[in-house]
């Protein structure tokens, strides 16, 4: 395992701005472990997973053993790492594949975070240790077929029936849906928007996978259907009574995406750098040509800028001063930058760039999902626009 | 209760360019990323497995410059309990004999040990003699090149694998074991392990603390001197066999000649 100790004394093409020197030993150690895991377990196989449109069933347990699931949460078998360390893990995971990072984000930042933040002590005890270990997989149901950027328009509802709740409705585009042992589902109630913990196998709860995706193929995406699902009162998350509940979770997950996008960009840049220095045309490596060097320089710039932005947000989050508007800027900027890097790298690789032999088109296609899920780039622009003008454009 | 000491060495990453310094032909540590030797990750793993199977404590012992703390921290984050780091300018350029003496002296600082686990050879110097020298200095049995280790009470059984075959050897503790890369697959440090590592005790000692005379160690006292070093010439093209109907036999002859079949 390589521990880079970049300094400005030598220039490292893989860490141009010596961002490593801004990390603590502990942060570097955590990053290195995730990087080795991705190198050993993800990179050699993920092309095939993408081709087959599946994610291996044992992966959650392996990730649990590694400790990344809910790693930034305290107690209940979670590691209690810093937000920055969690971000570095997301970066390394997404340098492998956005689908793998999505699994971890949904498990840790959406499902586990929801239970950790808004759940009862019993719910935490029941689910969090198993979820941290990867023995139980979680999913998070907020988006619906007709309710995306405007979650307030959700139709899924829950009504009281004696002590029980009756949940009915439909959720869509749910990562981990059909492989999940537990779903955290948001529904409108007479008491506002509330969250429910719905175990797999609960009567009336079914899932259907979404097939024919051309993006995030190494990730399960499902529809969740709730047909008059009876839940005990203990299934309700007691802490959340409004959209603030699910939105707080999304903010956590978006924070991980800010880092993850920098990872996907790095993988594409590194692939293009390697390819351009070994691919010979006109008697010399294509990296000798000014047009390629310009591409490489731009990609290196974007990767470094994205990583610095992510690190800055990480430091703010660890200080407790990170705002949702900051996260919007990070997600907007980094995912767009990563898409540009991926498309540019794709061209450097020529025809080889369209195959799964190389990571770039896989990242490129994945990022087309990443740019619109967890808040579209457009909505994040409007959040930033609202913050700088004081005028909300969509509310 | 098995007290295990694992010998850990920080080496230049095998992925980076490794070279000797121009001035004194010792390892140029600045030119390469420094990592815990891969074989030592396996040594630590074996110690942890023995500890987890029963009861015990795992102490990491490393002789090396200040930045060897990174290698020590890696071993601690995998799950070792504490560490001893012998760091002293005077050790620069020490040969294996001096290194073994220093390690033996440092083991005197451990309350008690039942087992010392080392890698069979470091990936930089590739001397491979430290475990044997150490056992000799300590006056304890040496069980080298282990591909399997079993500790039962106060005895240890080892499958020792060399080019000639596998030997089953047994000794009573305390003993020195060296492991080969077939011994196990090392675990990844867990995040909790990484975060706990910095709180684990690391005792840093100088040569004087060990009661070793600084004149006995270092480049000046080494029994051998590197006069010159040059990189290996690049590989030449392979041997070409013309198939005149006997290609199969010629290939087989070549493989037999290389002891591959």
Description:
Chain B: Heterodimer of an alpha and a beta subunit. The complex is a heterodimer of chains A (395) and B (261). Chain A has 10 helices and 9 strands. With 395 residues, chain A is of the alpha+beta class. In chain A, a hairpin with a 2-residue loop joins β8 and β9. The longest helix of chain A has 35 residues. Chain B has 6 helices and 11 strands. In chain B, the strands form 2 sheets. Chain B has a 9-stranded mixed sheet with strand order 9-8-7-10-6-1-4-5-11, with helices on both faces. In chain B, strands 2-3 form a two-stranded antiparallel ribbon. The model of chain B has no long low-confidence stretch (mean pLDDT 91). The chains are: A alpha+beta (395), B alpha/beta (261). At the A-B interface, α1 of A face α2 and α5 of B.
Helix amount of chain A: 40-55%
Terminal-residue CA separation of chain B: 45 Å
Task: Give Rg of chain A in angstroms.
Answer: 21 Å
CATH architecture type of chain B:
3-Layer(aba) Sandwich
Instruction: Write out the strand line-up for the largest beta sheet of chain A, numbering strands in chain order.
Output: 2-3-7-6
State the helicity of chain B in percent bands.
10-25%
Tally of discrete structural domains of chain B: 1
Beta-strand content estimate of chain A: 5-15%
Mean pLDDT of chain A: 95
Find the CATH topology of chain B: Rossmann fold
Q: Compute the gyration radius of chain B: what is it?
A: 21 Å
Number of helices in the DSSP assignment of chain B: 6
- N-end to C-end Cα span of chain A: 50 Å
GO molecular function, one term (chain B): electron transfer activity
Domain Electron transfer flavoprotein alpha/beta-subunit N-terminal (chain B): 24-214
Function (chain B): The electron transfer flavoprotein serves as a specific electron acceptor for other dehydrogenases. It transfers the electrons to the main respiratory chain via ETF-ubiquinone oxidoreductase (ETF dehydrogenase).
Region (Disordered) (chain B): 228-248
């Amino acid at each position: 395992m390589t521990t880079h100790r970049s300094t400005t004394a030598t220039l490292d093409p893989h860490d141009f701005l010596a961002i490593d020197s801004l990390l603590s030993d502990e942060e570097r150690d955590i990053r290195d472990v995730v990087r080795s895991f991705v190198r050993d377990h993800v990179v050699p196989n993920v092309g095939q997973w993408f081709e087959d449109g599946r994610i291996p069933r044992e992966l959650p347990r392996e990730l649990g053993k590694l400790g990344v699931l809910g790693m930034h949460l305290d107690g209940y078998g979670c590691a209690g790492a810093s937000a920055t360390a969690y971000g570095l893990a997301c970066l390394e995971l997404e340098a492998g594949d956005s689908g793998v990072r999505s699994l971890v984000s949904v498990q840790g930042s959406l499902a586990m975070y929801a239970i950790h933040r808004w759940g009862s002590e019993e719910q935490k005890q029941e689910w969090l240790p198993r979820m941290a270990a990867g023995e139980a997989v979680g999913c998070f149901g907020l988006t619906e077929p007709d309710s995306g950027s405007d979650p307030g328009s959700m139709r899924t509802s829950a009504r009281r029936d004696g002590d029980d709740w009756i949940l009915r409705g439909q959720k869509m585009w749910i990562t981990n849906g059909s492989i999940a042992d537990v779903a955290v589902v948001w529904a409108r109630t007479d008491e506002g928007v509330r969250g429910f913990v719905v175990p797999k196998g609960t009567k009336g709860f079914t899932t259907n996978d979404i097939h024919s995706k051309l993006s995030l193929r190494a990730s399960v995406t499902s529809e969740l259907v709730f047909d008059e699902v009876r839940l005990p009162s203990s299934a309700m998350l007691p802490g959340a009574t409004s959209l603030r509940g699910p939105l707080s979770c999304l903010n956590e997950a978006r924070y991980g995406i800010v880092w993850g996008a920098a990872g996907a960009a790095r993988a594409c840049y590194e692939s293009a750098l390697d390819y351009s220095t070994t691919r010979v045309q006109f008697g010399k490596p294509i990296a000798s040509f000014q047009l390629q060097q310009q591409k490489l320089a731009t990609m290196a710039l974007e990767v470094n800028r994205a990583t610095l932005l992510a690190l800055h947000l990480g430091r703010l989050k660890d200080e407790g001063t990170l705002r949702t508007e900051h996260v919007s800027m990070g997600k907007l900027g980094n995912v767009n930058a990563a898409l540009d890097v991926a498309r540019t790298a794709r061209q450097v690789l020529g025809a080889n760039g369209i195959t799964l032999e190389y990571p770039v088109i896989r990242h490129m296609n994945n990022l087309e999902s990443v740019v619109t899920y967890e808040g579209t780039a457009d909505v994040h622009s409007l959040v930033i626009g609202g913050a700088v003008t004081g005028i909300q454009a969509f509310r | 209760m098995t007290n295990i000491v694992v010998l850990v060495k920080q080496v230049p990453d095998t992925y980076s360019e490794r070279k000797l310094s121009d001035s004194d032909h010792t390892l140029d540590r600045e030119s390469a990323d420094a990592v815990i030797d891969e074989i030592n990750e396996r040594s630590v793993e074996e110690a942890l497995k023995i500890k987890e199977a029963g009861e015990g404590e795992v102490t990491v012992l490393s002789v090396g410059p200040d930045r060897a703390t990174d290698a020590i921290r890696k071993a601690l984050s995998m799950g070792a309990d504490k560490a001893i780091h012998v760091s002293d300018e005077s050790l620069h350029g020490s040969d294996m004999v001096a290194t073994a003496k220093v390690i033996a002296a440092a083991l005197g600082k451990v309350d008690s040990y039942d087992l010392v686990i080392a890698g069979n050879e470091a990936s930089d110097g590739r001397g491979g003699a430290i475990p044997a020298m150490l056992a000799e200095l300590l006056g304890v049995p040496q069980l080298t090149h282990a591909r399997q280790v079993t500790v039962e009470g106060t005895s240890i059984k080892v499958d020792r694998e060399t080019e000639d075959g596998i030997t089953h050897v047994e000794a009573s503790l305390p003993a020195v074991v060296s492991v080969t890369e077939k011994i196990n697959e090392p675990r990844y440090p867990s995040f909790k392990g990484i975060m706990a590592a910095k709180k684990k005790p690391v005792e840093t000692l100088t040569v004087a603390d060990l009661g070793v005379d600084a004149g006995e160690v270092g480049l000046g006292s080494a029994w051998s001197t590197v006069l010159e070093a040059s990189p290996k010439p690049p590989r030449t093209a392979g041997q070409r066999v013309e198939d005149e109907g006997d290609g199969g036999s010629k290939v087989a002859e070549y493989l037999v000649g290389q002891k591959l079949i």
